[in-house]
Amino acid sequence: MKVILLSDVKKVGKKGSIVEVSDGYGANYLIPNKLAVKVTKTSMDIKNKQDDDKAKQDEQNRLDAIALKEKMENLTVELKAKVGKDGKMFGAISTKQIVEEYKKQFDIELDKRKIVDSKSISSLGYTKIKIELYKNVIATITIHIEEEK
């Protein structure tokens, strides 16, 4: 029996995939528990429409990420850090602080886990950091750290 999985099923397949299962497993477990539907012309039409909608949404998200990338590459985040007598910073600027400053200064939500250069910044001046906004859309953002007085 061929079925379209409605959710991930261990050792069977991922959501949305078409798999061949035994008749008893499909009829007595997958379909009654709403884990799958039998492959018919109607179910294939619905699956194809959902796939098309997902592809359109994916493309829209990618275009939005590209627009955000262009906007972010023209912005500079200003941060202040305490500096000792010898000119070295106390501590470092973390990815969490960078994300919080972007939210505060420009009202742009970022995910700190998406920062490619995930090491902390421990020097004054301008630093460029790469952040992945979407699949294969990577923006280079500028961070300016100056001495706190």
Characterise the protein shown here.
With 149 residues, this protein is an alpha+beta fold. It folds into two domains: 2-64, 3-Layer(aba) Sandwich (Ribosomal Protein L9, domain 1); 68-147, Ribosomal protein L9, C-terminal domain (Ribosomal Protein L9, domain 2), CATH 3.10.430. The protein is built from three helices and six strands. The protein has helices spanning 23-30, 41-72, 95-106, and strands at residues 2-5, 18-20, 36-38, 76-81, 125-134, 137-147. It has a three-stranded antiparallel beta sheet, covered by helices on one side. A three-stranded mixed beta sheet has the order 4-6-5. β5 (125-134) and β6 (137-147) form a beta hairpin. It is elongated, with a radius of gyration of 24 Å. The model has no long low-confidence stretch (mean pLDDT 92).
